[in-house]
Amino acid sequence: MSPEQDHAETRVLPAWLYPAAFWLSLPVLLLSLVMPGAERLGVWFMMAVPALAALVVVLTNWSRDRRVSVGALIALIGLGLVVAVRNLIA
């Protein structure tokens, strides 16, 4: 099996993104737990991490794997629509 044929889904995100997001999220979540009024920061951060990952997928894989990039772009558009409709309702 050639390197190009081994599990393409494991090569979608850069290797540095998951550990960086994990170690950045720990202090943000701790801060949102101990500081009164900072819970919104933790909620928004936890919503932003998957959106950032989808954006990285779109930008880094567009020329290599268009299907994955289009799927991530559709997910980002759907998230934007959810936020827009929620703001209209609220």
Give short descriptive properties of this protein:
single chain, 90 residues, mainly alpha, flat, transmembrane, membrane, transmembrane helix
How would you describe this protein?
Keywords: Membrane, Transmembrane, Transmembrane helix. With 90 residues, this protein is mainly α. The protein has one domain. The chain is 72% helix and 0% strand. α1 packs antiparallel against α2. The chain is flat and about 45 Å long. The chain starts with 16 loop residues before the first helix and ends with a helix. 4% of the residues are buried.
Concise summary:
With 90 residues, this protein is mostly helical. The chain contains three helices and no strands. It has one domain.
Provide the domain count: 1
In this structure, how is the largest beta sheet organized? none
Q: Low-confidence stretches at least 5 residues in length (pLDDT < 50)? A: none
SSE order: HHH
Give the total of beta strands.
0
Shape: flat
**Number of helical segments?**
3
Work out the radius of gyration: 16 Å
- Strand portion: under 5%
What structural class do the secondary elements suggest?
mainly alpha
**What is the arithmetic mean of pLDDT?**
85
- What is the end-to-end distance? 53 Å
Helix content: over 70%
Layout: helices, strands, pairs:
Elements lengths: L16 H18 L4 H23 L4 H24 L1
